[in-house]
Structure formats: C-alpha cells, structure tokens
TrEMBL record:
Family recorded in the similarity comment: Belongs to the tetrahydrofolate dehydrogenase/cyclohydrolase family.
Keywords annotated in UniProt: Amino-acid biosynthesis, Histidine biosynthesis, Hydrolase, Methionine biosynthesis, Multifunctional enzyme, NADP, One-carbon metabolism, Oxidoreductase, Purine biosynthesis
Protein name: Bifunctional protein FolD
Pathway annotation from the record: One-carbon metabolism; tetrahydrofolate interconversion
UniProt binding sites for NADP(+): G177, H178, S179, I243
Gene transcribed to yield this protein: folD
Gene3D superfamilies cross-referenced by the UniProt entry: Leucine Dehydrogenase, chain A, domain 1, NAD(P)-binding Rossmann-like Domain
C-alpha cells in the first residue's frame, strides 16, 4: 500500500509547462485577421530586414521571421549589406525606408559591424516603423505606461506570465538580468500592472535570497544553469528567457538560463527552452508590425486627409 506522502504527491496537480508555441499560434491567428483587414483597406504590411556584415550570424532569425511573416500574409524583404558599408550610406538607406509609404516596418538584425553601433542604427528607424520596439522613443514610452510597440522579448515574457492567470497586482516578481531591451522593460511592464518588482544583475549580492521570495521569476542572463530549483519558492512561476547553446551527448543543443529539470520539480509554472518565450517573441514582432501599420495609416489620414497612399 503506498504511503500517504506518495498518494499526496500523485494527486497533486502536475507542474504546468507554459507552451509558447500554442500561445504564439493564437497570437498569429489574430494578427493574420488584422493583416487581411489592413490589406483590404490599402495598407498591406511590409517588413524590410537589414543585415550588415556577418549576415550568417542572423540568418536563422531572418529565416524564422520571414516564414512567420509569410504565415500571416505579410510581405518580408531581407536585405544584406557588406560589412564595410559606411554609416552615412546605411542610415541614408534607412531614411529612405522611413519615408517610403510601402514599407511599414524595419528590422535591424544583430550583430551589427563595430563601426555601425546597433543603437545608432536603431535610432535612425522612424519610431512608427520600429516593429522591434527598440527605438529610444518606444522604450521610453514604457516608463509612461504608454505601450504601443514594446521590445518583443520583454513583452513576450510578460505575456507568458499572464498565461498562468495569476493576478499581477501586488505580485512579488524578481527579474534577473537588467539589459535595456529585456530585463529593464520587463520590470517597467510589470510595475505598470501593479507588481512589486526586484531587479537583479551581475553585481547582486545574494541572488537566491531575491529569487526565493518571489511569486514569479524572470531570468534573462545568458548563463545555463544559473537558476536552480533551490532558488525558487515552491509553486512560483519561472519565465526563462535565456538562449544558450551547450554540448549534449547528441551534439549541440539549446537551453535556457535555468536548470529545467530541477526547477520543474519546484515551480508551479515553467517555460521550456526551446518552445517557450522564443516563439512568442516572433509573434510579438508580427503583432508590433500590425500596430505599426495601423499607426501609420492613422498618421497618414491625419496628415493628408486620405485613408491610403494611391
Ligand atoms: P545582456 O548580456 O545584455 O545582459 C545580461 C544581463 O545579465 C545583465 O543585466 C547582467 O548584469 C546580468 N548578469 C550577468 N551575470 C549575472 C549573474 N551571475 N547573476 C545575475 N545577473 C547576471 O543580455 P540580454 O540581451 O538581455 O539577453 C539575455 C539572455 O536572453 C541571453 O541568453 C539571450 O540570448 C537571451 N535572449 C532571448 C531572447 C528570446 O527571444 N527568447 C531575445 C533576446 C535575448
């Protein structure tokens, strides 16, 4: 006869692995309907991706984005430029895309060559065409709780937490990693929802103390195995944003920043890597692309008094 402890464990609800692919699919269906309506009103959604220099590094991302765009009826053009292209020339090309009404979104692929700092290129994209949500104006709007186009990964990570159906009001959340495009925007998005947020980084003295007291933990660092089960409060949600390639017995594989098996034992909800935040990030890019096209349509109507360019 099994012991009471075993019976209790067997009848306990199973840990919930948050399925990013399913959520991404739902978002894509909404986006596809929006794209069809925009196209019918004279505003087809068209994205232009810009890679410079080591275009091989971003090839997988570009291919994923291109397929995802096609799946919702968006046009996607991938442009590769040589690594020695001048800063003036490339920003001139971006300015041209900014003023071309047939282009509704611009994506700057990383890494960029050293003489073309990523932030400078990102700044040259018009905020209304910044589908990655990384222009300083769009990042800054988050501080004012004005979320039009947020940085895709941060918004995707928060969407994954929403999947738990936990109320965010007063929720204790620890965010590990404070980069400008992931950790910090996550903290602001959560504060806007009423969460109490602690932000940890490489100088944090006692990471486990902060993670253990949280109802939800976000980790975006880039270090496999950084978060272990012992660092979590039982039942907490763990949103793993890290993407790391490690050697496995069957060759290289992709893992997050958490020890999945150990954390799965303790957490109430956990995101897998791959199949968690990643697919939702691409879906958010598509959602931003729709938002961008709608904002440009409204701006065009307000400026020219016409609904669409001829
Ligand atoms: P980053 O290098 O800009 O920032 C890393 C952050 O981790 C910094 O805030 C740093 O202080 C912190 N950190 C470093 N060591 C730490 C430690 N020991 N303890 C606590 N904090 C520590 O990285 P990023 O661009 O924010 O990306 C983070 C991770 O997220 C990477 O693995 C990246 O590949 C991944 N990422 C995933 C997606 C996605 O779509 N899922 C998108 C972007 C980035």
């Amino acid at each position: 006869m099994p012991s009471t402890a075993v019976l209790a464990r067997e009848s306990a609800p199973s840990h919930k692995v948050l399925d990013g692919r399913a959520l991404a699919q739902r978002i894509r269906a909404e986006v596809a309907a929006d794209v069809a309506a925009l196209t019918a009103s004279g505003w087809p959604v068209r994205l232009v991706s810009i890679s410079a220099g080591d275009t091989e590094a971003a090839r997988l991302y570009v291919r994923n984005q291109s397929r995802a765009a096609a799946s919702v009826g968006m046009d996607f053009e991938a442009r590769d430029y040589p690594g020695d292209i001048g800063s003036e020339e490339l920003t001139g090309i971006i300015q041209g895309l900014n003023t071309d009404p047939r282009v509704t979104g611009i994506i700057i692929q990383r890494p960029t060559p050293a003489h073309l700092p990523e932030r400078r290129l990102q700044r040259s994209v018009h905020p209304l065409k910044d589908v990655e949500g990384m222009h300083p104006a769009n990042i800054g709007n988050i501080v004012y709780n004005d979320l039009k186009m947020g940085p895709c990964t941060a918004v995707a990570a928060v969407e994954m937490l929403r999947e738990t159906r936990m109320s965010l009001k007063g929720l204790e959340v620890t965010v590990i990693g404070h980069s400008a495009i992931v950790g910090k925007p996550i903290a602001f998005l959560l504060m806007a929802e009423g969460a109490t947020v602690t932000v940890c980084h490489h100088m944090t003295r006692n990471l486990a103390m902060h993670s253990r007291s949280a109802d939800a933990v976000f980790v975006a660092v880039g270090k496999p195995g950084l978060v272990i089960g012992d660092m979590l409060k039982p039942g907490a949600a763990l949103i793993d944003i890290g993407i790391n390639q490690v050697d496995g017995p069957d060759g290289p594989r992709v893992v997050g920043d958490a020890d999945f098996d150990g954390c799965h034992e303790v957490a109430g909800w956990i995101t897998p890597v791959p199949g968690g935040v990643g697919p939702v990030t691409v879906a958010m890019l598509l959602r931003n692309a729709v938002t961008a096209a709608k904002l440009q349509r409204d701006h065009y109507a307000a400026t020219f008094g016409e609904t669409a360019p001829g």
